[in-house]
Design goal:
The complex is a heterotrimer of chains A (290), B (305) and C (204). Chain A is elongated, with a radius of gyration of 24 Å. Chain A is an all-alpha fold and 290 residues long. Helices cover 69% and strands 0% of the residues of chain A. In chain B, helix 3 crosses helix 4 and helix 6 runs parallel beside helix 7. Helix content of chain B is 29%, strand content 25%. The two termini of chain B are 29 Å apart. Chain B contains ten helices and twelve strands. Chain B has 305 residues and is an alpha/beta fold. Chain C is an alpha/beta fold and 204 residues long. Chain C has one domain: P-loop containing nucleotide triphosphate hydrolases (Rossmann fold), CATH 3.40.50.300. Chain C is 27% helix and 25% strand. Classes of the chains: A mainly alpha (290), B alpha/beta (305), C alpha/beta (204). Chains B and C meet through helix 9 of B and helix 4, helix 5 and helix 6 of C.
Chain lengths: 290, 305, 204
């Protein structure tokens, strides 16, 4: 055969690091994102509280090796404040998104298995919550709960479950009426066996990925309602508080007060997003081999 | 019209953890189909039939690696050329009617694939030919019966004016009459000068309409022959697997051979059919035979005569 | 202990009747073929006979009694699409042994290899999966097998292979078999009686 015709046609090789296969790349990216989040949490916990005490001799310093993110008008180290603020935010975000996913699981399962009345009730609730803009509902709930960490957690948990509920309901329904569940029943398997062995393995990844993907929403909403003044109290080192205070000083040229905390928030949120997205890709049988 | 030269397609898949394994889905496959001819690809599921169609159209999944050459109208088919010719010079009649756009009326679907001439006129003409009314043209896919949806798919492929038609399992699940009708359409296309590649596991379908039969086994062609060679006890056939296929038909002996097609990551190093072959020798075990000419056909077996 | 369907009627929601007062009797040891065009209600009949679907009127009895609601169903259904009948997140050995442990002779006569057992369903072809579905249905308590177009998607060799195993078991254990197919040649090969179904009207 004419060799000039026998061209090699490799199909898209996605490798930007050629020695790693796709799954290794994915895991590496996830590990890097996890390290970023881990370092931020460790810094928040380990850094000395003295660094955020008031030091009038070190006011309004621009970023330097000693103060990576600079200092504010009270001489507090902005890096320490950011780390502590983000740690608080991550904690709140985790609890809120976990609560959200648990609500979604329970409602999704209930609406798929407990009959028509429950199903339409849940669907109505989902539509109701999806109909109201997130932030408005969130502010209302946080306000009613009297603000603070509790208000934010309840607010975020109560507003983020609807879309995941729909997803889980659909998934459970599909499995329940699938051919292999029928077969299992006729092999003499009990409802408990089918629920645990057939349905659960499909839901576990949804659960994990659900938490990770809701987390960025939770943390951003926490920051935004705190920024608006309906969330955490000004005395807590929350990222929303930092950003909202910094606004007043932006005009005086102290750009680092808002820039670094904002950037850190973005990095953390994006990191969690990367972890969740890639985990979903790995656990989905349709894309797992790409 | 189309030649496939020494085509191999492999997949990488993940085993437990991070290790990858390679699956040889198609290996050293040679085929050609000429204008005015229907070539039927027959073989079991997992023999690489559909994959071959995807390779020709350039729609393999991203974890597939392809080597070898595809030549269409005398020029190599590069990925760019595939993109340009897909739906224009080469058309696929897909396996399932789910490939219709559920939100588009039947007539509009056909009109979008028209490349030469007035869309509406061509579509009307096609629908008339396939016994679809103008009311059917205004229907959405879910309002059509399975047979009607199938006819819409076929008319889409025809309306494109493609010269190479690849039909991937067009008949299973169809009413006998509709199936026959689909095959007649394919025959007409070939008679008008198209090259038709018919992918099927249904021997009856293939033999009734095709000029040439290519028998696939474990990702490669084991025999290419005129369809008229499938007759009597199959004594004209060149490869033991073709003979096994013929003898296994319910209207013949309904006689199975034991064992199963090798898995794609456990291919034997010698002849792919050797583990199931009665005539297998140590030569067959060690060396993979080449496809060679034999009695106006081709065969991949050292014992064939 | 015959499998009997009396006065079966069925339709989905408000559509036309798919089954209208259908009678059917299947004896142990009998192989009955049903042939008819797609969409005529053959599959619905199969699902009702195996207890997958409830008829709107009439009923199915096994030896005069209704089908058991719990435990291994003595009427086992095998369908056209094996890839839908196995859990995609289970390795094959779990699927194979879900009801009981099929013996090695059946497995080897079906051509099921040991190394397939560790695979996920998406690593096997339809023909390979269908062999598992057949092995899984031939349990010690199985009295009747309903085979709904089980070899429509298979090549002739695999088709002959699985039918020879199925017919062997049916004969050896005196089971009843209802074979549904559009392929009249196949039905003539395997069944002692064939019903040609023409849109709700049934005649022998």
């Amino acid at each position: 055969m004419n060799t000039s015709l026998t061209a090699r046609m490799p199909y898209p090789v996605m490798a930007f690091i050629p020695t790693l296969n796709r799954r290794q790349q994915t895991l590496l990216l996830m590990a890097m994102a996890a390290v970023v989040v881990g370092v931020m949490i460790a810094a928040g916990i380990l850094l000395d509280n003295d660094r955020i005490a008031t030091h009038f001799d070190q006011r309004n310093l621009a970023p330097s090796w000693n103060h990576l993110f600079g200092t504010d008008w009270l001489g507090r180290d902005m890096f320490t404040r950011t780390a502590k603020g983000l740690t608080v935010s991550i904690g709140i975000g985790m609890i809120a998104s976990l609560a959200s996913v648990v609500i979604a699981m329970i409602l999704g399962l209930a609406s798929a298995t407990l009959g028509k009345t429950v199903d339409s009730a849940v669907s109505w609730l989902v539509d109701l919550f999806l109909g109201v803009p997130h932030l408005v509902a969130l502010i209302l709930i946080a306000f009613v709960m009297g603000g603070g960490a509790k208000g934010v957690i309840v607010g975020v948990a109560c507003t983020h479950w609807p879309s995941l509920t729909r997803l889980i309901r659909a998934e459970v329904l599909q499995i329940r009426f699938s051919e292999y569940v029928h077969v299992s029943k006729h092999m003499g398997r009990s409802r408990v066996f089918i629920a645990v062995r057939h349905v659960m393995p499909h839901l576990a990844p949804q659960f994990l990925v659900g938490i990770l993907l809701l987390f960025p929403h939770a943390i951003l909403h926490e920051a935004s309602i705190t920024f608006l003044g309906f969330g955490l109290s000004p005395h807590q080192p929350a990222i929303g508080v930092i950003l909202s205070e910094s606004m007043k000083y932006l005009a005086t040229g102290m750009w680092w007060l808002a820039f670094f905390p904002g950037l850190s928030l973005l990095v953390i949120v994006r990191s969690m997003d990367i972890i969740g997205d890639h985990l979903r890709q790995l656990t989905d049988p349709h894309s797992a081999h790409e | 019209m189309l030649s496939i030269i020494d085509l191999s397609i492999s997949f990488t898949q993940y085993r437990t953890g991070l290790r990858q394994k390679t699956m040889a889905a198609v290996s050293n496959l040679n085929l050609s189909v000429a204008a005015g001819e229907i070539l039927a690809l027959v073989g079991s599921s997992g023999s690489g039939k559909s994959l071959l169609a995807h390779a020709i159209l350039g729609i393999l999944p991203s974890n597939a690696t392809m080597t070898g050459a595809l030549v269409f109208k005398g020029e190599p088919l590069t990925p760019e050329r595939q993109r340009a010719l897909r739906g224009r010079d080469m058309a696929l009649i897909p396996q399932t009617v789910n490939s219709l756009d559920p939100l588009m009326r039947a007539g509009a679907q056909v009109r979008t694939s028209v490349r030469n001439g007035k869309g509406r006129a061509v579509q009307k003409n096609m629908f008339e030919r396939f016994g679809l009314t103008s009311r059917d043209a205004r229907r959405y896919p879910f309002q059509l019966s399975g047979g009607m949806a199938r006819r819409v798919l076929v008319s889409s492929a025809l309306a494109s004016g493609a010269r190479l038609i690849i039909a991937d399992e067009p008949t299973p699940g169809l009413h006998h009459q509709v199936a026959q009708e689909t095959l007649t359409q394919l025959r007409e296309l070939a008679d008008q000068g198209c090259a038709v590649m018919l992918i099927t596991h249904d021997m009856g379908t293939a033999l009734g309409v095709a000029d040439q039969i290519a028998v696939l086994y474990a990702g490669t062609v084991v025999e290419i022959c005129p369809s008229s060679d499938f007759k009597d006890q199959g004594h004209l056939l060149r490869h033991p697997y073709s003979r096994a296929l013929w003898r296994a038909l319910p209207e013949n002996e309904f006689h199975p051979i034991s064992g199963s097609q090798p898995l794609q990551d456990y291919l034997p190093s010698g002849c792919l059919f050797e583990p199931r072959c009665e005539a297998g020798t140590s030569l067959c075990k060690n060396e993979r035979p080449e496809l060679r000419e034999l009695r106006s056909g081709k065969v991949r077996c050292v014992h064939a005569s | 202990m015959p499998l009997e369907a009396k006065d079966l009627s069925f339709r989905y929601k408000k559509s036309r009747w798919i089954l209208d007062r259908v009678h059917l009797e299947l004896q142990p040891g009998q192989v009955l073929g049903i042939s008819g065009p797609s969409g005529c209600g053959k599959s619905t009949l199969a699902r009702i006979l195996a207890g997958y679907e409830k008829p709107l009127a009439g009923g199915v009895t096994l030896g005069g009694r209704p089908l058991p609601q719990k435990g291994f169903n003595p009427v086992q259904l095998i369908s056209q699409h094996p890839e839908k009948a196995v859990n995609p997140r289970w390795r094959m050995h779990r699927t194979l042994n879900e009801g009981f442990r099929p013996d090695d002779i059946v497995l080897s006569s079906l051509g099921i290899e040991k190394k397939w057992l560790k695979r996920w369903p998406n690593e096997l072809s339809g023909g390979e999966l269908q062999r598992f579905c057949l092995a899984r249905a031939l349990g010690p308590q199985t009295r009747f097998v309903i085979a709904d177009e089980i070899s429509t998607m298979l090549d002739p060799v695999t088709q002959a292979q699985i039918w020879s195993v199925l017919l062997d078991s049916v004969k050896k254990r005196n089971m009843g078999l209802l074979a549904i197919s559009h392929d009249k040649n196949l039905l003539m090969r395997i069944s002692s009686m064939i019903i040609i179904w023409e849109d709700m009207m049934m005649g022998s």
